[in-house]
Amino acid sequence: MASSLxxxxxxxxxxxxxxxxxxxxxxxxxxxxxxxxxxxxxxxxSFKKVSAAHYETRSVIRTMIFSAGxxxxxxxxxxxxxxxWKTWLLPADxxxxxxxxYWHLINIADTCIGFVIGLTxxxxxxxxxxxxxxxxxxxxxxxxxxxIVKPCIDMYLARKNSxxxxxxxxxxxxxxxxxxxxxxxxxxxxxxxxxxxxxKSKIEAYWYYLKKLNTAFLNMAEDINFDYNPEICDxxxxxxxxxxxxxxxxxAVVSFGKExxxxxxxxxxxxxxxxSEDTEIADVEGELNTVFIFMHMIHAxxxxxxxxxxxxxxxxxxxxxxxxxxxx
Length: 328
Prior knowledge:
This protein is mostly helical and 328 residues long. The chain has helices at residues 2-49, 52-89, 96-163, 202-223, 230-256, 262-274, 287-327.
């Protein structure tokens, strides 16, 4: 009986410890998420500060302040001149006509000052509305292009992850960032494990969808100015630049697996298997150096896609929240 009670007590204590541990983990995870969101907001603010829209807004505001200030100063000087004229220059025995003229001129100056203030406020409001409209139009254009780009990204990620996953291991189809090493490319000349790639090797399927994604990004970069979302432009340009620098290495790696290059292919595979995790690009040469450049391009593409997808998700959330507010 006592033994049974002891077991029950220990079980209850264990459950309490597990519950406290789980609560602690949830708090730490929540705190980490908040820190990541705060850091992300700071990154977006830093990108917005260097955006074309930010510089244009500052330029417009400076122009409005300068022009409105110049007009106000001119009218204030005019009023001061009228006051001086009335106080010191107008004879004491001035008749009613001259006195009435003075107040008429004062009223004209006051009316002009009010007109300048009202016109400046109207210009500011019109600019704000036009700015918000341009921002929404750019976001809609990004979302529209992303509907074309996103399937290309999915197809690319599937082939990329199949490429860097040795045979016998599970392929994480849509994983964006990986820690793959050159040794993981040892099976890249084997047949693709994806059914729709029948007749193609892993490297050939990867190269085909890389060119598709590169073209989609290029079209998107040419069609949108990215005045309000420069971070997306930077991510795409990073992807395109890495492709440009690594295209020669990628074509060489693909050519190693073509018919007639069996000896070279076997040599490359052997060298890949002989590499260790500590091997650096500066330590190798020849065909293996080309493979290292190719792997560097893959990781650079992963970083660019991570940045792109993060901003796209934020824009999509902003759009959804705006639609919900309009429906309420």
